[in-house]
Structures are given as C-alpha cells and as structure tokens.
Amino acid sequence: ARYARHYSLIFAPPYAGDGLNRIFETIMKHFFSRMASSVSGLTKNIVAGTLDIFQTCSQELRPTPSKSHYTFNLRDLSKVFQGISICQPSSLPG
Length: 94
Hints:
By secondary structure, the chain is mostly helical. It contains four helices and no strands. It is elongated, with a radius of gyration of 18 Å. The mean pLDDT is about 85.
C-alpha cells in the first residue's frame, strides 16, 4: 500500500472501426506515391488484407501457457507495414 502511490494505471481502449484502416492507409499512400500507378492502386487492398489477418490472428491465436508468445499487438502490425515500406520501386512490378 505504501508503494501504490508511485504507480499509475493507464488504460487505452483498442481502436475500433475505421481508425486503424485510416492510419495505415495514409502511411501506405504516402509510401506508394513514388511507385507506379498499378502498384499504388493496391493500397486499400493491402491495408484491408493485413488488418484482416491481424484481427484473425489476434482472435484465434490466443496465448496459452504452452504458447505464451502468441500475443499480437499494434507493434506487430506496424512492423508489417514497415517491412513493406523498405521496398524499392525497382523491386515491384508495374
């Protein structure tokens, strides 16, 4: 009880609705702006597919005592988009 005053509990609700889609779509649109138009037109599909996979993994691959490493958060999702953004225009078709 003496140490309780030194700690704070912070809770942030998870993103709901279109928030994540808008955030990552904006990031990918900026990255794909220097690519060919056939590649930059795939921005919405890439973001929607990645978010769908993330949500499925988060719901279906729950951590268990034997698989405690099955925790998925926004950091993992952002790493996917970070990996996409290191592509060079010459490595993508179109």
